[in-house]
Amino acid sequence: MRTKLLNKLSLGWLIVFLMPVAAQQIESAKLPDSLAGQRVAAYLKAFNSGDEQLMRSFFQENVSPAAMQQRPIDLRLEAYHEMRGNIGTIALRRVLKATENNIVVLVQGKDGGWREITFEFEVEAQHRFLALGVEDVAAPSGTVTTTPPRPMTNAEVLTSVEKYLDGLVAADDFSGTVLIAKGATPIFQKAYGFPSKEYNIPNRIEKVSGQDYYSCVRERIFKPAGMEDTDYYEADMPTPNIASGYTSEGVASAGGKLRRNNIYTRPARGSSAGGGYSTAADLLKFSLALQSEKLSLPAFRKGETKASSQGNMGVAGGANGINAVLEMNFATGFTIVVMSNYDPPSAGTVGQQIRAWIANSQPNGNPNH
Predict the structure, then answer these.
(1) 364 vs 334, which has greater pLDDT?
(2) pLDDT at 368
(3) What's the whole-number average pLDDT of the chain?
(4) Helices (H) and strands (E) in the chain, counts
(5) 3-class SS string, 99-142
(6) Does the predicted model carry a pTM greater than 0.85?
(7) Cα dihedral sign for 293, 299, 300, 303?
(8) From edge to edge, which strands make up the β-sheet containing 176-182?
């Protein structure tokens, strides 16, 4: 199955998912009564509004000119729509750190996930936004989670994943592909639902033939990584084996189970902001290319010359009828790929649950048994 290629949201508006670390106990949240604190409060209000014009006004009034020059407002709005589509509205739970040019908060998304958001500001008196970073964290102690109470074997993890996905598919809450790999070896890969409901064609894992794509991306990313089935296909060009997306947006139905094809909300062709197509197998190749440093990432933090291929990283993206998650734990070698042709957070929810089970598994178990 091909579905939308994940976006990398960089230059200050990057959604980075790390393997969970313990979040601190929730206390009453209160932002500092400073200019930086007021800007964070304004961001949360604009983010939760779902109003593009309000978010546009926020960027115009609160982002530094230098940062705006690096990343124009239209690209920021695209990133905003992706992030909000993935996690929904966010509730402030705690202020973890607050200085004149740095504020870190703990929030909970409508999807149930917990995240730390770091806001970086100018050192000048106006303290306008320079950057924002988002990291997944584990639920605070005392919060009900879906993580099993005892360590699981790898075999139990895979059994739980399959049962979980079967339940979601039976409830029509998921359609797409899931791949879990240990190193270069997939230990679970399965497709669910239909890439085309109109013709009842089932989703598949296997590869399909490629077409022309932008030469720079092809030569510098896709080709070195061996991603033969990843491209920026044009909407009006016949391309075999591309999945259709199905969205509940604008469809009145009980429980959001009635969906329509997203053909009119997809771009004519993708760009650097997103809109490409890929397969689960190709995204595993991308993960392995990063881990082996065949490909390198730009630096996301001050003082770095390039991003480290050690530790953990993930990227997520989505739009109407499209949601995808790629998570890489460089320390353990696990890669999780979830690609869905339903609305967000269909893939994000599955990826979060799989990651929780893997994090709770026995470290020395055999992943193939």
Answers:
(1) 334
(2) 44
(3) 77
(4) 9, 14
(5) ECCEEEEEEEECCCCEEEEEEEECCCCCCCEEEEEEEEEECCCC
(6) no
(7) positive
(8) 185-192, 176-182, 334-340, 322-329, 312-319
